[in-house]
Design a protein that fits this description.
Number of strands: 0
Number of domains: 2
Oligomer: single chain
Order of helices and strands: HHHHH
Shape: elongated
Distance between the termini: 34 Å
Strand content: under 5%
Number of helices: 5
Helix content: over 70%
Structural class: mainly alpha
Radius of gyration: 22 Å
């Protein structure tokens, strides 16, 4: 049943000539993104959904989680009026935000 859906969806096949190095690079990039080589090529050619490495998504999720924990800690420290700790937490939150933005731009 699953194969039948694929044959209905993709009815044409095209051939692309690549060097061995180009093929290896494309295969690596598709594997990094966690998608098939065909899906990788379709996304590049048609400009569909951006190609995002799975590790980038995992990293962004973890950075957001850490940012949330720091923000909670920031609120607790703010109530105690500890200015040195507040400055350190603020710097850490800004660094996390910068890292998330940098990873998001590469999408």
């Amino acid at each position: 049943m699953e194969k039948r859906k694929a044959t209905i969806r993709f009815q044409k096949r095209r051939t692309l000539r690549l060097t061995a190095e180009e093929d290896a690079r494309m295969t690596r990039q598709a594997a990094t993104a966690g998608i098939s080589v065909s899906e990788y090529m379709r996304r590049l050619f048609f400009g569909g959904r951006p190609i995002i490495a799975r590790t980038d998504d995992q990293t962004i999720r973890e950075l957001r989680r850490l940012g949330g924990l720091l923000k909670h800690h920031f609120d607790v420290v703010q109530r105690t009026q500890s200015t040195a700790t507040l400055a350190e937490l603020d710097a850490a939150l800004r660094a996390i935000r910068g890292a998330i933005e940098a990873l998001s731009e590469t999408r």
